Each structure stands twice: as C-alpha cells, then as structure tokens.
Amino acid sequence: MTASSAPTGADTGSRDAVVPTTEAQRSGALHPGPMKTRSAPSVTPLLISAAGGWLTNLAFPDRGWWPLAYLGVALLLIALRDLRTVQSGLTGLVWGLAFFLPHVHWAALATGSPLPWIALSLSQAFYVAGFAIAWTVARQAAWVREHPLIQTAVAAAVWVAIEQVRGSWPFGGFPWGILAFSQVDAPVLPLAAYGGEVLVSATVVVIAGLIALAATQERRSSHSAVLGVACVVAALSIGPSLLPLSTGAEAGELRVGAVQGDVPQQGAHWAAQAREVTANHAAGTQRLAESVESDGLDLLLWPESAADIDPRTDAEQAALVEAAAEAVDAPLLMGTQRFPDGQDIRYNEMVLWQADQGAGSAYAKQHPVPFGEYVPYRDLFRRITPLVDLIGTDMAAGTDPAEMSVPVERLGRAVDVTVGICFEVAYADLIGEGVRGGGELIVIPTNNASFGHSQESTQQLAMSRFRAVEHGRATVQISTVGASGIVLPDGTVVQRTGLFTSEQMAATLPLRTSLTPATRLGTAPRTTVWVLAAAAVAGGALSRRTRHSGRQLLDAGRQEVHHGAHDEFLRGRSSVKA
Questions:
Q1: How buried is residue 224: exposed, middle or buried, by Cβ count under 10 Å (0-12/13-18/19+)?
Q2: What mean pLDDT comes out for the span 517-544?
Q3: H or E stretch at 413
C-alpha cells in the first residue's frame, strides 16, 4: 500500500508508510510523499515508459501528431511516480530507447550498419535516464513533494536542463529529438519567438505533468480540481496561438530561387557522381530561369554538396557554375568542399559566386557532425569498429559566424543572410548568432541523400520552421534530394518539394531586421533552467539526506528506549526474586 492510498489512521506495519496528511498526498500528486516499502520491481512502469517513448516519437515528422508529445511525456512521469532512484534510471532509459530507436533509425541507412544507430540511440537514451534520476531526487524536497503544481514546474525545468545538456555535450551535443521540434504544427509554436526551444519544451512538459497529475488523482478528489487542471491544460495548449508574431517586410523583399537537383544512383565513381550532381543543379537552374524570366531573381540557392568538386580549383565545374549564375543573372550561394593544400582535412563551405566575378566570400561549417563528418579519438574507436574509416578525411570546423553578405543590385545594397549548413539548423546558438549579427533571412543548405526515404529530411524541415518563428525570419531549406521548403516567418510552409526529385522553387520573401525576444535572450533561458534544475536537485538530495539522518536518530532512540525498558524489566524481576 502506498502512502497516498493508506486510509487515515491506518497502521501498515512499516515505518516507511505514512498517513496521507498533506494536500499533495491526498490529491494523488506525481510524487505522493515517502516511497512505499521495498518490494519486488514491477515491469508495469517499464511498459508504460516504453509506450510513452514510442508515442512521443510519433509527435515528430513524418507523422507529426504533436499532441502525442504531451501524452508520451505524461506516461513517463506516471511511470516514475513511485520509483526509487535506480528503478527510475532504468525506466527513463527504456523511455529513451523506445523514443530514439525509431527517431534516428536513419543513422543505420546512412552508415549501412545497425551499430552506429544503436550506439547513438543508447547514448541519447542515457540522458533520459539522467532526467529520471534527477527528477526522482529533486522531488524529495518538501517544497516540491507537497505541492503538485510546483512538482510539474520542477519536472519541466529538470527535463529542459537535461535536454539542453544533451544538445551541447559531448562533442558539441546532439539536439535531435528536442521536444520543441515536435510542435511546429501546434498552437504553442508562437512561444518559440519568446523563449526558443527552452520555453516550448518546458511548456510541453508542464502540459504533460498536468495530464499526469489529473490521471493520478484519487477517486475522492473533487471533480472541480480535475476540471481546473483540464482548463489549465487547454489554456497552455491553445492560448499561445493568440500571441502576436511580426512577419512583415522591414527592409524590403528578396526574390529567391532554389534548385533541388537530385543525385544519381549509387555505383559510379565518386568523382563522376559529384560532377553529375553539379550538372543536375545547373540543368535545374536553366529550367528555373525560364520559369521566372519576367520577374527575375535576386539570389539563387544551391544545396550543400551541390558542387563537391570545388569550382574554385576545377575549370569544368567552374564553367557549369558560371553558366548557372549567368542564366538567372543573380548571385549564387552553393555548397562545395575545400581541401587545404598540405593538410589532411577538409572544409564544408557555402560559397558566393557571381557571374563574371567568380567565387567570393565563403562560410565554412562550424559544427561538423562527430562520427558523421569527422571521427574524434579515431584510434580508440577504430578498436571498436572499422566503420570509422568510412570517413577518410576529417572535416574541420570553420571559425566565422553563420552569416554571409550578398550584394543585391535591385535593392542597391548587400543583404545579410544567416547560413546553417545541414545539421547546424539544430543548434540554437549558431543560428541565433547569425541573426543577431544582422541576418535578414535564414538559409539552410543540406544534403540528405545518405538518409534515403527516411524521416530525417522532414525532421530537419521542422527545425527550419521552428527557427523561422524563433527569429522572425523567412527561411529556405534547400536539399540535394529533398525535402526542401520555403518557410515564412510565422512557420508557414509556402512551397515544399518531394524526396529524390528534381524540382525548383521561387518566392518573394520579406527581409526583416528586428529581433524577437528569443533572439535577444540568446542563451539566458538555457542558463536559467540549468540553475533552477541544479538547485532543485541539490535541494532534493539535501532533503533526502536530512530525512535519512533523522530516521537513523529515531531508530537509535527506539533502540535505546527498548534496551532501557528491557533493563528495567530485568531489575524488576530480580527485586521480586529477592
């Protein structure tokens, strides 16, 4: 019998069982007070947790059933309700595996082996285990334990704190699967402009916590309390849609074209394939030029790896790129690889190319993907798997901010563009730095060819939509194979391509210079939740230690009383015999 279900005045025969005297215990809070007496571990929390992780994955693309994020996290909180620390960690690990294994199964497609997929999923699942342990400790504090609504807020702070650690450490982190990215079609999306990932993810967990609270209410709890919780959930779920979002042009408009050229079937030599990819994009540019001839373009976008053989050093490639720039009579931003002389490294770059002028400025990817574009501690990991040598030349990190300046003749000025190459769209700091540096438009060039027909590209497009709202900027995601999309500052997708198709897009997009609250705040929300979560966990650990010490003193006192009574009894017997 748990503390929350023991009848008033009941004696359970265990010093760990207590009468439900606090409001939190009577209301069936997420943590009803002291833990129940030790018993054999149950598989029920593990099953509930696994269901929660699986459902949460369905909230993300391709499914995009965003309400399931609330239900999935609520199931995790319910599963953790009566567990001890070690049990909580295992339960969180199960939730994490049930979520990440389907969420990043594209890693197996990209590498041709299940090992990297399983290793990535397991490494990320350990963070959810960390949340479960931290939350179990934090809720031991009386100010958390006895106030259900505070429990919900603390759960949100701890979740987001762990989520932000996962997105930044180690090797720069892996932000894939952040709860906020599941909400691009939800009414809570406008919160992105006010607090970024931190605020949206926290809102998801608060809603989930309230659902868990309502689901665990005791039958004797009043219907009005449950109704109140339901009203708060509805307000948090729908209310943010009423928040104002500024989306109009502030510094003119830009006519942007983008070419998705597609890639050839695997099998040919890599150099021949690379040249064919460039030729595909050049041909697509000719078609685009014909379709927009009357309006013209101010900027042409090619994706990452559209010209992997560097046109700056290869005359054949340069001729194709030059012809494309001339066809649209506009500057071209295109993706290529640069191999510095005498160094066994490469840079993943976006290069500005202008007709009759050739290559200009370039932006080098700042955040290469560990184990995808470079291998840290290669000698060590080679002992585990030879797959590390599939990456022959490590990609080095660029050092310049994610921003490029593009001359626009029609506007009579240069337009600053924030550029995040491929996975960089997942890193809030990097995109935010580019926007604060003057970016009026966000461009996400990417190459998704390795991920097949998986949901990786649509997950990425969801992140591009989130960044559009977060920073109030029109955003263009352009891929070699799709999904590519043009997104307005409110997150609306106005054009989108299919997968493994040759398509072109063109749109007139607003240029904006004002900064949203989220852009201005930068890393402050993340730092705040780290401090709050650390304080909550420290408070819970101290409270648990204090209660443990108190129990030891109480046990010692009981033993002393028992021994004293026993000695008195023996003395009494001796007196009677005398």
A1: exposed
A2: 96
A3: strand 413-419
pLDDT (tens digit, 9 = 90+) per residue, 167-222? 999 999 999 999 999 999 999 999 999 999 999 999 999 999 999 999 987 655 66
d(CA 322, CA 327): 9
Which helix (H) or strand (E) element contains residue 439?
A: none
Burial track 447-473 (b if 16+ CB lie within 10 A, e otherwise): bbbbbeebbbbbbbbbbbbbbbbbbbb
**Beta-ladder partners of 478:** 445
Give every CB contact of residue 152 below 8 A, 6+ residues apart in sequence: 30, 205, 206, 209, 210, 213
CA–CA separation, 477 vs 189, rounded Å? 19
Q: Give the burial class of 287: count Cβ atoms within 10 A of its Cβ; 0-12 exposed, 13-18 middle, 19 or more buried.
A: middle
Task: Give CA–CA dist 407/361, Å, rounded.
Answer: 11
What residue has token string 């009677």? 576
pLDDT category of residue 19 using cuts at 50, 70 and 90: very low
Task: Tell me the three-class secondary structure of 244-255, residue by residue.
Answer: CCCCCCCCCEEE
Integer Cα distance of 384 and 15 in angstroms: 50
3-class SS of residue 335: strand
* Token pair for 350: 């976006």
- Cα distance between residue 19 and residue 374, in whole Å: 58
Q: How far apart, in Å, do the first and last CA atoms of the chain sit?
A: 50
pTM for the whole structure? 0.89
Please give the angle made by the CA atoms of 351, 365 and 261, to the nearest 5 degrees.
55
Cα–Cα distance for residue pair 297/508, rounded to 1 Å: 9
Q: What is the mean predicted confidence (pLDDT) over 137-163?
A: 95
d(CA 159, CA 141): 17
Nearest to 181 by CA among 466, 488, 444, 456: 466
- 8 A C-beta contact, residue 37 and residue 157: no
Segment 50-78, tens digit of pLDDT: 999 999 999 999 999 999 999 999 999 99
